[in-house]
Amino acid sequence: MTRSILISGAGIGGPSLAFWLGQLGYHVTVVEQAAGLRTGGAAAVDFRGEQVALLERMGVLDDIRTQQTGMGDQLVVDGDGRTLTRFPSALFSGEVEIDRGDLSRILYEHSRNDAEYVFGDRITGIGEHENGVDVTFARGGARTFDLVIGADGLHSAVRRLAFGDESSFRTDLGYYVAAFSMPNSFGLDHSGLIHNEPSRYLSISSGRDSDRAMIGFVFAAPPQEYDRRDADAQKRIVTAHFADVGWKAPELLAALRDAEDLYFDSLSQIRLDNWSTGRVALLGDAAWCAGPGGNGTGHAMLGAYTLAGELATADGDHRLAFTRYEQIMRPTVEKSQKFAANAGRFLAPATEWQIRRRNFTYRILSSPVMSGIFTRMSAKSANTGALESYPLPATAVR
């Protein structure tokens, strides 16, 4: 019977799974390459529809609401700052939105009493045998676990070790995204500004922390060669693609030079025929990265809940649990991947005409007559996965 489980990744999916497994009495270890929780950065994540019900079932909804960004509508502006249209808060912020770092901390706080967290280390080898999985680490000594779960993101090391090279499973969507934070010198208060030029997107927003502004860049580009550990190289790529953009781009690029919390990556999706092999399974972006608009955070947490529930239902039979977990989650993921495949074209339309057409559409959707309908449509788009009932202990349902 499965009792010891190693989870790689202490972002969102990993601590979510650690919470449920800990409640169910499993011996859980979470290993994270970073020296501590990744609480910095400029990314916010949102929840809507059935995803909010999951937060409530997990017992974290109240904590999330106390830390929510409270973002309102975001204005789309031209190069002179004139408003062209607005994106309703329901589009980007859902029913409740929180900075990713704050969410990570809340999930850690709710799971740490029932899990061992090991920071500053990473998995370097996986060797499966009849009775378990032998795991080697970059720093710590080798250990044996019943199961290993890779919740370590788009560039998953567990996936590479167990399934093969990332290039075999990654589909690039033709866009890159960058985000960082800087002092809020823009007078924004729970609001944001967006500016487009063909194939490029710039955003500035400020939510719960009025002293800080979150900056976002999206741009279309062929594959870029760079070291993922070299922030200066990533900054040069962003600067090269926005050097001729007007509006506030020069000011933002100047701030980018000194940014210490830059996130930079391609918009990509992961497509695998199977999310498990033997005693190893994948969760969240490691298994099915969809990209912006693909309910990534909500689905990672739903996947964690489903995987833990299926392990409990199968009485630790990992083969049955992994099969059922994938049967339940795959239709959900495929719907979201299909929707998110257009995220880059929506955020950074390729031509001026496409920008104008998108803006016109959202002028209609954000009108008083349509706003309620739009909110309901946004919630419905998130309800791509069912919240199953599992034999969880009473302490896990608060």
Give descriptors for this structure.
alpha/beta; 398 residues; 37% helix; six-stranded mixed beta sheet
Mean pLDDT: 90
Low-confidence stretches: 394-398
Number of helices: 14
Radius of gyration, rounded?
A: 21 Å
User: What separation lies between the terminal Cα atoms?
Assistant: 28 Å
Number of distinct beta strands: 18
Inertia-based shape: globular
Largest sheet: 7 strands, mixed
Approximate helicity band: 25-40%
Label the structural class.
Answer: alpha/beta
Strand order of the largest sheet: 5-4-13-14-15-12-16
Explain this structure to me?
It is a single chain. The protein has 398 residues and is α/β, with parallel strands linked by helices. 37% of the residues lie in helices and 26% in strands. The protein has helices spanning 13-23, 50-58, 61-66, 89-92, 100-111, 157-163, 231-242, 249-256, 285-288, 296-313, 318-340, 343-347, 352-365, 368-382; strands at 4-8, 27-32, 44-47, 74-77, 83-87, 96-99, 116-119, 123-129, 132-137, 143-145, 147-150, 170-183, 191-197, 200-206, 212-220, 263-270, 276-277, 280-282. The strands form four sheets. Strands 5-4-13-14-15-12-16 form a seven-stranded mixed β-sheet, with helices on both faces. A six-stranded mixed β-sheet has the order 7-2-1-11-18-17, sandwiched between helices. A three-stranded antiparallel β-sheet has the order 8-9-10. A hairpin with a 5-residue loop joins strand 14 (200-206) and strand 15. Helix 1 packs parallel to helix 5 (100-111) and helix 10 (296-313) packs antiparallel against helix 11 (318-340). The protein starts with a strand and ends in a 16-residue tail after the last helix.
